[in-house]
Amino acid sequence: MLTSSSLNSSEELFYPEVTSLILVASRMKESKDGKKADRFSKSSSTDSYPLVLDIDDFKGDFSFDALFGNLVNELLPSYLEEEADASEGHGGNDMQNGHMRTASDAGRSAQGLSSPLFPEVDALLSLFKNSCMQLTDLREQIDGKLYSLKKEVAAQDSKHRKTLSQLEKGVDGLFGSFARLDSRISSVGQTAAKIGDHLQSADAQRETASQTIDLIKYLMEFNSSPGDLMELSPLFSDDSRVAEAASIAQKLRSFAEEDIGRQGMAVSPVVGNATASRGLEVAVANLQEYCNELENRLLAKFDAASQRRELSTMAECAKILSQFNRGTSAMQHYVGLRPMFDVEVMNEDARLVLGDPGSQPSPSSVLHGLSSLYKEITDTVRKDAATITVVFPSPNDVMSILVQRVMEDRVPKLLEKLLVKPSLVNQPSMEDGGLILYLRMLAVAYEKTNELARDLRGVGCGDLDVEGLTESLFLPHKDIYIEYEQASLRQLYKAKMEELRAESQQSSESTGTIGRSKGASMASFQQQISVTVVTEFVRWNEEAISRCNLFSSQPATLAANVRAVLTCLLDQVSLYITEGLERARDSLTEAAALRERFVLGTSVSRRVAAAAASAAEAAAAAGESSFRSFMVAVQRCGSSVAIVQQYFANSISRLLLPVDGAHAASCEDMATAMSNAEGAAYKGLQQCIETVMAEVERLLSAEQKATDYRSPDDGIAPDHRPTNACTRVVAYLSRVLEAAFTALEGLNKQAFLTELGNRLHKGLLNHWQKFTFNPSGGLRLKRDIIEYGEFVRSFNAPSVDEKFELLGILANVFIVAPESLSSLFEGTPSIRKDAQRFIQLRDDYKSAKLAAKLSSLWPSSS
């Protein structure tokens, strides 16, 4: 039996959980009462079947819960049953089914608590002790086995180390043997290689000697007599050995030519050498004749095989012919016999692209024809490329010759008929297409031919620079291209102007205009600036710029060409809108002449005055119409300039920016070109102001009455409405300036309205100087000034508004009493001079002796 201390140490060492259970069981044992003997008797019956532990129980997936269950499963059910019975007999709560417990229930509960809480503790404690003893025995068994295994492992490890040491020594010796063997093998191999080299050299020398003997023999045969090829060896007449015969003939020919060359360079007096030289010349002549005959025979065989599409025979002949001038004759012969280079085919090309003779081809039809033709050429070259790859030893060389023939023979002959360069002196008429037709044809041909070059490059053309060949085809056209582009733009502009003049003339004739001035005005109206026409100018220029992009590969060249083409557009737009503005100015000038014609003096009859007034009305209507026409012209001028500026920003700038200074120079060109139009517009706007002010003055003179500002003092309430003249002037200005508000924008509008407002202010001041004012007339004047001020406020010109506000202050000089005049302008001394002039217009100026009073009040102004 183990002691308590040994048991506790074993329990703590192996299973802390079991130790804890034993401690709990011990404490419960101390609290048991007298019923312990009965329960222990039950547990004794259970302990009669002890649990036997084995090492195998701890192998595999060990679970402590399973071990503990095996120990206590036979004991705990009885405990659980007793607990269940106790629970049924006594209850667990003070409150049963919602009622308070009675005293009897409490007594029973106290009696139940006196019984032990864990009756099976003795049986469990005995069982746990027995299990701990078995676990201790198992630990000792395991320790013994571990010790035996350690000793056995140590012995095996020592034995293994000895074996490894012996193996290392053996391997070291084996490596040394292999090294000696490798060195020996290397030495033997080097010796064998040297022997092989000697043998190979000897065999090559023997073979060379044998070939030299044969070559000397064949050379003697060719050197026998000039032109005698009948006594040659069978080799040279055997069709089955043509390749060998060709190779030998080429070697003999090369040797003989080199020997003749050496003899010619060296001066030797020995006759034997001269004889030998003459003999080799005979051989060379015979060899040349034989090679020519053999080459012709092979070419004939090649042609026959080509017609029968026997690619193997063609390949055999091509391989043999490659020994003659690297096969150049065969390649050129093959390419020259292609049907695509026949004269009939090339004539059909011209008919396909240009159409029937005598018809005028269009760029679209030429584009379609070139697309079809070049596609056909590409497909044909692609088919030939498949044959060439199979037949020729060097297909890239043959493709190079084929594509070169296409780009130097077939394409140029077509372009020669398509691109007929017109004369810049005697330009073709627009009915015949003009210069623009040639340029469009050139662009279409250049673009499609470059596409053909790219397609042929994709099919294969060896080392041929097909793009360079394409550029060389168009070089004569590209050298002076920009001159034709500028001439074409000028021709288009001239034709458009003639068309517009013809339309204007036709419109004038259809309306039946009579009279020189009237007809001129109508012509001017019909030839107003058209934004559509300017858009057409831009479209022409945009098309020309696209051609510049196409023909100019270098940025500097492109920028120069673009600037030249843009200059044409700027000149055209500047000239067109300047002429349009000048025509609109002419109508203003004609209206001014009409006004001057009907200005009459004061001593005329009433009938003449009435006729003059009617004529003045007509002149005013003509002036208003001319004003509107000029404003429309200015508006369209601004729109046209905006279109050109937008075109420059969107399409031109990006082409000029890569070149230093090009963009700035073009901006300067544009500003210079537009300066003429700006000058014409400025002069026309000044004339518009003159026209408006002339009509204002006419209305004021005709409508303003002396009684408007000096109404009789008849007791009738004064009229606070604006005068009729004011109403007419404001109505006229509102009507006529509507066109100016629409046509002008920004600073132009502000400057025009400011100038007009200043002129209106000055004109009104001069007009009012003609009248005398009493207080009621002063009120009427102030009402007119308010009306004028409200109208000019729409000008958004602060300086003009200020002037009319000061006019309102000046009008007070007619309203206040004479003694109040001194204090009227204390806050505004700047208008005292104008105030003095106004004060002199008071009807009481003399009677009230205002001159003396003013001189004493404002001595500096007198």
Automatic annotation (TrEMBL):
Record keywords: Coiled coil, Exocytosis, Transport
An example Gene Ontology biological process: exocytosis
Family matches, as InterPro entries: Sec10-like, Sec10_HB, Sec10_N
Start and end residues of each Exocyst complex component Sec10 N-terminal domain: 122-238
Coiled-coil stretches: none
Domain Exocyst complex component Sec10-like alpha-helical bundle: residue ranges: 244-853
Disordered: region residues: 84-112
The keyword Transcription appears for this protein: no
Transmembrane segments: none
Family the UniProt entry places it in: Belongs to the SEC10 family.
Official protein name in the record: Exocyst complex component SEC10
Species assigned in the record: Forsythia ovata
